[in-house]
Every structure is written in C-alpha cells, then in structure tokens.
Specification:
- There is one protein chain.
- This protein is 49% helix and 15% strand.
- The chain is an alpha/beta fold.
- The protein folds into two domains: 2-252, Rossmann fold (3-Layer(aba) Sandwich); 261-388, Serine Threonine Protein Phosphatase 5, Tetratricopeptide repeat (Alpha Horseshoe).
- Strands 1-2-3-5-4-6-7-8-9 form a nine-stranded mixed sheet, with helices on both faces.
- The longest helix is centred in the N-terminal third of the chain and has 21 residues, at 112-132.
- The chain starts with a helix and ends in an 18-residue tail after the last helix.
Length: 406
C-alpha cells in the first residue's frame, strides 16, 4: 500500500500524455531549477507530417492553459484559426509568478530575478519547442494581471519573437504606456495586441495605467499594429478571462479566417477584377507563410469575390479566375462554370458549351445540384439554336464567326 501511495505522488511530476497534453519537468540552467510545463499538440500532428503549427505560450498556465486550449480547438474546428501547439508554464505552485514577473517600481523594467525568467522563456523554452516540434514562425503569448504586464517586455525587444500579445486585465508597470506606444512606431512586421479590463477593477492606479496604454494605442494609425480593447461590463475578474480569450483570438487570427463581409466591404469591394484575384492569392500565400497552413483558397472566398469578377470590366477576367480555380479544385465544376460564362458572355457558344459540359461531367447527374447546373447547358443550346435561325440572342445578333472571346 505504501508503494501505491508513492506512485500516486510521483505521477504528476513525470512525463505523461492525456488528450494530447504532455506534462513534463523542464530543467532550466538560467533558473537553476526545474519548472513544470504543459504542451498541447493538435490531433492532426501525427498524421499531417508536412504541416507546421503556430505556437502559443501561456503564462499562469495553472488556470489559463485549459481555457486557451479549449478556445483554440473551437476556433480551429470552425476554420477561424489554425491549429496551434500550446505551451503552458506552471507558476502558482509556490507563487513563483511574483518573482518570475516582478518589476522595479523605479524603472518599470524587470528585476534581476525576473530577468532570469525572461531569459528562460526566450532562450531555453522556445528553442526547445522549435527544436522538438514542427512549428511555424507565428507565436502568441498570453498573461493575466502581473504576467500580462510581463509579456510586454518581449514586445519592447528590437526583434520580436512573438507576433501576438494577449493582455488580460494587465497590472502595467510604471511608464510602460509610453514605451509600448513608442515601439509601435518602429514596427516593420504585423503585430496583434489585445487588452481587456472590466468594472471589476477597483484600483484607481491600475485603471489609470490601463487607460494610459489604451488611450495611446487607440490613436495609433500604424498599419502593421492591430489593436483591440475590451472593457467588460458586469463581468467578474474570473469571468473576464473566459470572455477575453475568444475575443483576442478573433483579432489575432482574422488574417487566417475566410473573407468576412466587413473585410469585403472595407478592402475588396472597390477593387478591379485583377486586384481582387491578386488579393485572394496573396491572402493565402500569407496564411501559409505566417501560420504554416498550406490551404487552398476556400470556396467561400471564391464566392465572396465572384461579383467583382463577373460584373466588372465585362467579365474579361472570368477565364483567368476559372483557370485558377481548376488548378485548386480540379474535381469541382466551379472553374469550368466561370470559363464557360466567360465564353458565353463573348458569344462563343461552342466553347461555352464545352466548358459547361466539362463541369456537368464533374458534378454527376445524381447530384442534387445537377439540374441547376444543367440549365447553363440548356441556356447555351437555346442561344445556339436562336443564332442559327437568325433570331435575336440577348437583344443582339452577333455573328458566330465574329466573336470577341475566342
């Protein structure tokens, strides 16, 4: 019986896996001690061997880790964020968080002890993760109250190792507002910065520090600085954590998500067809570069830019658009539809019919959308018959041997 008790004591401090989560002791030379870390890897990690994953580092992992993992899994399942490798640092066994993240009241900068923890995370933990897992370049760091202040010291570095910062109810150090604002002026790469608080914050000093940061950052017009602030009304300090993480993820992974109506209206609506196609291609190149997710252009995004391609410049980019889609989705009828429409609008009914038939062959007669797609073929056949009989086609009578799109 004594052996059983000893076994139960030692299990939490050894390496084990549960639900893709590994807990291990990490031996730090800088801290001259072992620290307990948690590592979550997504389900696809073992099957998609060519895929790389963004990394999120969670301070105060005793209670923030599971909340972040749950939200990360939800966002990934709805295709609003890539799957992530999530690394948590346990800091509340012996209240280590206060030494880990302490700062000087005089300078607002890390103390000698917290500088060691700073180095541990940057020079030991992150290299370990990058060396042992397939990681992409995109990294997020999350903190709460004093640990939220601490994450900003990485933001102030000359070369960022993190792309996104989630500050939950931060206890900002003196003078940090000006330091953060000044740093935004020098950005050369995109940074995502989230802050939240609520009416549960009673300390006037803390409120002022948060307001100082927020008021300065609200004025920022730096294109590469993406900022969001939430002031939760009626929330508690605890409930605000559950509210803040999904709100932050929606900011951070907006470039990954499909094109929203807001993105279309603000960015794409006034583009030319050539610009819209280039925007679409560039968006997915950046998704691959940042997040390690080699996605094909989503059909949703194809439909979002479709009106621009069809309605502007007489549909002259429909063929290019259709060929791009055929490369991405060779088994889909969508590319053939756009190429068919290109030739139909140019009165080349022979070629239009060819591509519509190609598309119909892909969709299959037993598909519930087959009848609707076949209407394209019937429409062109009707136009060909009308043309042979010398009847008007769409209000005009173009000769079949005098076609613009041939």
């Amino acid at each position: 019986m004594k052996k059983l008790v000893l076994l139960l004591i030692f299990i939490p401090f050894s390496i084990f896996s549960q639900d893709n989560i590994t807990i291990k002791n990490f031996n730090s030379a800088l801290l001259n001690t072992e620290r307990i870390i948690k590592i979550y890897v997504p389900d696809s990690y073992e099957t998609e061997k060519e895929k790389n994953y963004p990394v999120a580092v969670i301070l105060d992992a005793d209670y923030l880790f599971d909340i972040y993992v749950a939200n990360a899994k939800l966002f990934a399942s709805t295709d609003e964020a890539p799957e992530q490798i999530i690394v948590g640092i346990i800091q509340n066994q012996h209240k280590e968080r206060y030494d880990d993240c302490d700062y000087s009241i005089d300078t607002g900068l890390p103390t000698e002890e917290s500088t060691k923890f700073y180095g541990f995370l940057r020079d030991e933990l992150l290299p370990f993760v990058d060396d042992n897992y397939r990681t992409s370049m995109f990294k997020t760091i999350v903190g709460n109250t004093i640990t939220a202040n601490f994450i900003n010291y990485y933001f102030l570095e000359a070369n960022h190792i993190f792309n996104a910062y989630i500050n939950i109810n931060p206890s900002y150090a003196p003078g940090i507002a000006e330091k953060i604002e000044a740093k935004t002026q020098t950005l050369t790469e995109d940074v995502f910065y989230y802050v939240c608080t609520g009416d549960f914050t009673k300390s006037k000093k803390k409120k002022k520090a948060i307001n100082d940061v927020v008021n300065l950052l609200k004025l920022s017009d730096i294109e590469k600085f993406h900022f969001k602030f939430d002031n939760f009304k009626g929330a508690t300090k605890t409930s605000s954590i559950g509210q803040s993480i999904p709100s932050a993820l929606s900011l951070i992974f907006r470039p990954y998500s499909g094109i929203s109506k807001e993105e279309f209206d603000k960015v794409i609506a006034n583009m030319s067809p050539a610009e819209a196609i280039e925007y679409l291609e560039k968006k997915y190149v950046e998704i691959d570069y940042l997040f390690g997710s080699n996605l094909k252009i989503r059909e949703h995004d194809i439909y979002m830019v479709e009106p621009i391609i069809i309605d502007k410049e007489d549909g002259n980019y429909l063929e290019e658009f259709g060929k791009m889609i055929n490369r991405l989705y060779p088994d889909s009828p969508l590319g053939d539809y756009y190429i068919g429409l290109y030739y139909e609008t140019g009165y080349n009914y022979k070629k239009a019919l060819k591509y519509y038939k190609n598309g119909y062959a892909k969709i299959g007669s037993d598909n519930e959308n087959a009848d609707a797609y076949y209407q394209n073929i019937e429409r062109v056949l009707d136009k060909k018959r009308a043309l042979k009989l010398g009847l008007p086609v769409g209000g005009e009578e173009p000769a079949e041997d005098n076609q613009e799109k041939n």
